[in-house]
Amino acid sequence: MGHWIIAPVVLPAALAALAVVFGRVHPGLARAFSLTGCVALLAIALALFHAATTAPPKLYRLGDWPAPFGIVLVLDRLSALMLLLTAGLALAVLLQAIATGWDRRGAHFHSLWLFQLMGLNGAFLTGDAFNLFVFFEVLLIASYGLMVHGGGGPRIRAGLHYIAVNLVGSTLFLFALATIYAVTGTLNMADLAVKLPQLPEGDTGLIRVAAVLLMLVFALKGALVPLQFWLPGTYANAPGVVTALFAVMTKVGAYAAIRTGTLVFPPDLPATGPILSQLLLPAALVTLALGAVGVLGAATVSRQAAFAAIASMGTAFIAISGFGPLQLTAAIYYIIHSTLAAALLFLLADLLAARGADRPGEANLPRLPGPLAALFLGAAIAVAGLPPLSGFIGKLLVLQSADAAAVVWPVVLGASFLMIIGLARCGSSLFWRAAGPIRPVPAAQLAIPFVMLAALAALSVFAGPVTDWAAGTAAALADPAAYIAANALPGGAP
């Protein structure tokens, strides 16, 4: 694909700069830049996805410096999937932001939106651990600006909490990278995959510490217990269209855990062994349980959606923690599903909040139109993991792949039961007991949520082909020889 591999990073960065320059004078131009960028990114992501599916991993060298000395971007099946998921979600949610008017409540919404896409795409493509840190910081800056979009005291306070927690994570990330570089002399992930098995025994302790620090950072990004406390307040106070995009941002933590856990610190690496699995699985189980209890007890739909996002990350990390082909297949399918389902629930919470119906426990709730009820029912089925939507298939794959079935099955099924009760209680309050005047919803604001619900249905209908593709991706992750070979490492490539 040549230079197209860098396009998902360069294109949104260039358009974001144009949106900053011209957005204040001509707001319509900023919107045009943003829409054009999202459409172009979706087209590029589709082309890259096809290329990654039909060919081995491809390397792009910035400045033509060879790996591991220069900055490299690597396109493989997993990174291509995340690019496509991000581009599709970004375009859909941007259209919803325009339909609801959220993009007009701040001067730099579109430039921040594009910078956010730059950070996401860069994190998925980079083949270097330090540049993963760099793109994490781009994400942090842009996401903070989007989170406080529209202003307000609660939003500013939640934003400050969010940025403080993530700065702690960034510090830990730097400590981990410094330790790895001090021991190995490289941060190129393919080069690390070659060098770490050859380390002398005296250096294994430092590498083990670095691996644990990295997993702590990825757990923070992915909202795993005990580092999940930033997410409920942050997501519940942010604009609904922003949190819908953030549904893929938490997946950066899951993606980074998969990439490092299969490439840099695989389960058979003597220095780390199964320690990552031993840490991730208990944290994932507790995260799922905590998220389910939060869904049951949340006072608002937006907080319920935030806790559902925490529960979904717990489910994804249960599968990721195995780091085997079967577990990674389940994780990949569930990541696709949970991103779409969480985004749908956040968009629905935004529509309900705009009509004063975000608190199901209050009296005199306004009556809501039938299409909103249908959307809530579909979102609840998807989030709770009930048939016939893709959440049921995703959780079934996770259960089938679980190594510690005696522990995993009760937690997953019990959490699903609690979420069903919480969502059913919320839905009955909002749509059966409301007696106030009807608050209609413009058709333009319902279009994107119904498209996302249709996407979840399609993910169920085509579960077989999607799972087969995910199995091929998992097999490539479990045997990263092709990824390492793409880097053409001097004296080290297999």
What do these coordinates show?
By secondary structure, the protein is mainly alpha-helical. It has a domain at 278-461. It contains 19 helices and two strands. It has helices at 7-23, 27-54, 77-100, 109-125, 129-147, 153-184, 189-195, 204-221, 231-237, 240-264, 275-297, 301-320, 325-354, 370-384, 390-401, 405-431, 443-461, 463-478, 481-486; strands at residues 58-61, 72-75. A two-stranded antiparallel sheet has the order 1-2. Helix 8 packs antiparallel against helix 10.
Keywords:
494 residues, globular, mainly alpha, two-stranded antiparallel ribbon
What summary fits the major beta sheet? Answer: 2 strands, antiparallel
Q: What percentage of amino acids are in beta strands? A: under 5%
Q: Tell me the span between the first and last alpha carbons.
A: 23 Å
Which outline best applies? globular
Return the average pLDDT rounded to an integer: 89
Number of strands: 2
Number of helices: 19
Low-pLDDT runs of 5+ residues are none
Q: What percent of residues adopt helix (DSSP H or I)?
A: over 70%
**SSE series:** HHEEHHHHHHHHHHHHHHHHH
Alpha-beta classification: mainly alpha
The radius of gyration computed from the alpha-carbon positions, rounded to a whole number of angstroms, is 22 Å
Strand order of the largest sheet: 1-2
Give the gist of this structure.
The protein has 494 residues and is mainly alpha-helical. The chain contains 19 helices and 2 strands.
